[in-house]
Write a structure and sequence with these properties.
The complex is a heterodimer. Chain A is mainly α. Chain A has eleven helices and no strands. Chain A is globular. The chains are: A mainly alpha, B alpha/beta.
Chain lengths: ~270, ~375
């Protein structure tokens, strides 16, 4: 039986795209791992749904989840903003303007962040008035938590961008952090649940992830009305700040390193 | 004398991927993207594979107020040279200075003194208008609002983009995009401008206007120094004060376009045509006599099918005095109709120097 040419043509497209996908070996492997981790992560979330969140924030699960989602929407632009600015047409041109790296990084994410802040308000409003989430916000703590979160995530963004400038592909550091974040940073469940699910002490790994602190400080500020003058709360904020203080300069240096290496290899415009 | 641009024994080697070590890749075999996990690890660890020479000891001295052209075949290292000068690529050995500032050690000072117009680095936002794009870059360059506004207005007028200035960049033709690129290049009023293939993509009228803008306005009126890499030999001959031919990372010739044209050739050809006359034995003797004249390498009679003596094609030394030759012809009573000299073109010189095609039939300099 003769195969119709249209079918052959569809097959040709499919074959071409498969070869293309398979040629990006790192991306292919990371995609497969992402699928496995994703399934695993959702499994944990699903198993948690009916449990209280009193362990950490003394609130119901819905409030916990809604705050987590809104924070996720607020912070993701900070991670993605700079990377989205990277392409051969902009990076070379921007570098030739003699612009400083912090200005480039902050400038690249600012609009997306402002937009996220604007959308943050309707998210929270909907959460409270439509889904009945109960917030207990301390404004000063929340602003401080946002500030620390921004510094942590911009540090990560610069690390990621610096590596991507060199590798031109998936950067393994950010990918690993993101995978671990999905699994361990407690976006959809308190990290202490990991101790219950696996074995005691697993949640310790979570506290080594910068994103865990982003979610934790924001939830603490928005769900428990904490006073920054409370020594226990202050310690939490100081711990989070350590990540920011360490990550921001590391990010800056990594970005500088990436640009310098790409300049040496002549690949700045090959992104 | 301090030059606008100076390079001394400039070397740039590009590493190939470590994975490809020993595979005998071509000199231009470098790939930008690192697609495999091994490649990523190598990149992070800093493993550098075998090298290809993009620039191999380039010495250049470009005077202030000069238009200097860099000619070379594909992959000769032209773009690398320009990118080294504008700090987008770090050189490995040698020195490079822009207005006296070291490209490797003082990149900020270098960038204050030059602006590069690279067609591959557009960096314009398609959803903004041409004017908005320029305003954005004016801010990045640190220009005051008033200065920027005035300068943008002047540049848009200068390049004829005024009418389309408030249209989206996405509506711009290739030529208009090029002009906007030039506007951005001129925003800061730097003393040195670098162009990579400045008229590629422009129609002949726009290209002529562009060349005139470079030559008459930017160099003659404003005293800027221009370094332009180009494939366009006509363009190089028309606007450049001096040119350098870059081939496989080395400067193989550097002089004025006129001198370059002769640099590879010892001879010219010229043709003499006659008013109607019949070819005779006497003319054969005349040709023998002409062959004896110092500086004449060949004299070929042009005889028509009807036996008419139409003319003579000479191959002569480029420095020959033609008086004696013409005297011999006139002595035979021949009436000269035309004398045409065929001088070597820059294209012939370029081909001969870079060896991309045989430089026949002219005699190469020995």
């Amino acid at each position: 039986m003769k195969i119709p040419i249209a079918l052959k043509q569809i097959f040709a497209f499919t074959k071409r795209d498969f070869y293309n996908w398979a040629s990006y070996k790192t991306a292919m492997i990371t995609q497969i791992i992402n699928i496995v981790i994703g399934v695993f992560s959702w499994g944990i979330r699903a198993s948690y749904v009916q449990r209280p969140v009193s362990e950490m924030y003394g609130c119901d699960y819905l409030s916990f989840l809604i705050v987590g989602i809104t924070i996720g929407n607020l912070i993701m632009p900070l991670v993605q903003g700079v990377q989205r600015q990277l392409n051969p047409w902009t990076l070379e041109t921007i570098l030739m303007t003699n612009l400083s790296i912090p200005v480039f990084v902050i400038g690249s994410v600012m609009w997306r962040y402002i937009f996220s802040v604007l959308t943050f308000i309707p998210y929270i409003t909907l959460g409270v008035y439509v889904f009945g989430a109960r917030l207990n916000i301390n404004i000063i703590s929340t602003l401080l938590a946002f500030l620390i979160s921004a510094a942590i995530l911009m540090g990560l963004a610069m690390v990621s961008t610096g590596l991507r400038i060199v590798t031109k592909s998936t950067d393994p550091v950010t990918w690993t952090i993101n995978v671990l974040q999905n699994l361990l940073s407690g976006i959809a469940f308190p990290v202490v649940y990991l101790d219950v699910l696996f074995f005691p002490g697993v949640s310790t790994f979570s506290w080594l992830l910068p994103q865990t602190w982003v979610y934790h400080l924001c939830r603490l500020s928005m769900l428990t009305n904490p006073s920054i003058l409370d020594p226990d709360i202050l310690v939490q904020f100081l711990k989070g700040s350590v990540f920011a203080i360490v990550l921001f300069p590391i990010g800056y240096k990594t970005f500088q390193w990436g640009v310098r290496r790409a300049k040496r290899e002549g690949t700045l415009g090959h992104y | 004398m301090e030059y606008a641009i100076e390079t001394k024994s400039l070397v740039k080697k590009y590493p190939t991927s470590a994975k490809n070590k020993g595979r005998g890749r071509g000199r231009r075999g470098h790939e930008g993207g690192i697609r495999s996990l091994t490649g990523i690890i190598d990149a992070i660890k800093g493993i550098r594979g075998p090298f290809i020479d993009a620039l191999d000891g380039v010495d250049l001295s470009i005077r202030r107020g000069e238009i200097f052209g860099i000619l070379g075949p594909n992959g000769a290292g032209k773009t690398t040279l320009i990118k080294v000068l504008c700090t987008l690529v770090l050189h490995d050995e040698g020195e490079a200075y822009v207005n006296g500032f070291d490209v490797g050690k003082e990149p900020s000072k270098v960038l204050e003194n030059l602006q590069a117009v690279l067609p591959g680095s557009r960096g314009f936002n398609w959803r903004l208008t041409g004017r908005q794009n320029l305003e954005f870059y004016a801010l990045l360059y640190g220009l005051d609002d008033d200065v920027a506004k005035k300068r943008i207005g002047n540049l848009l007028e200068l390049t004829g983009l005024e009418e389309m200035a408030d249209d989206g960049y996405q509506r711009y033709s290739t030529g208009m995009q090029r002009k906007l690129l030039l506007c951005r290049g001129l925003l800061r009023d730097t003393p040195i401008l670098l162009f990579d293939e400045p008229t590629t993509g422009l129609d002949p009228h726009a290209a002529a206007d562009f060349r005139s803008l470079l030559r008459d306005r930017l160099v003659k009126e404003e005293g800027k120094t221009i370094l332009a890499s180009t494939h366009n030999l006509y363009e190089a001959q028309e606007i450049c004060d001096r040119i350098a031919i870059l081939d496989r990372g080395k400067i193989t010739a550097c002089d004025t376009p006129d001198n370059i044209r002769y640099i590879m050739f010892d001879e010219n050809t010229f043709n003499v045509t006659f008013w109607e006359t019949v070819y005779t034995e006497e003319h054969t003797r005349m040709l023998d006599e002409l062959q004896e004249v110092s500086g004449i390498y060949g004299a070929t009679p042009q005889v028509g099918q009807d036996g008419s003596f139409e003319g003579i094609a000479f191959r002569v030394d480029k420095n020959i005095d033609l008086s004696a030759t013409l005297e011999i012809i006139l002595k035979r009573g021949l009436r000269i109709r035309t004398v045409n000299t065929e001088e070597p073109t820059l294209e012939e010189a370029f081909i001969a120097i870079t060896g991309k095609l045989p430089a026949q039939p002219r005699r190469r300099r020995r």
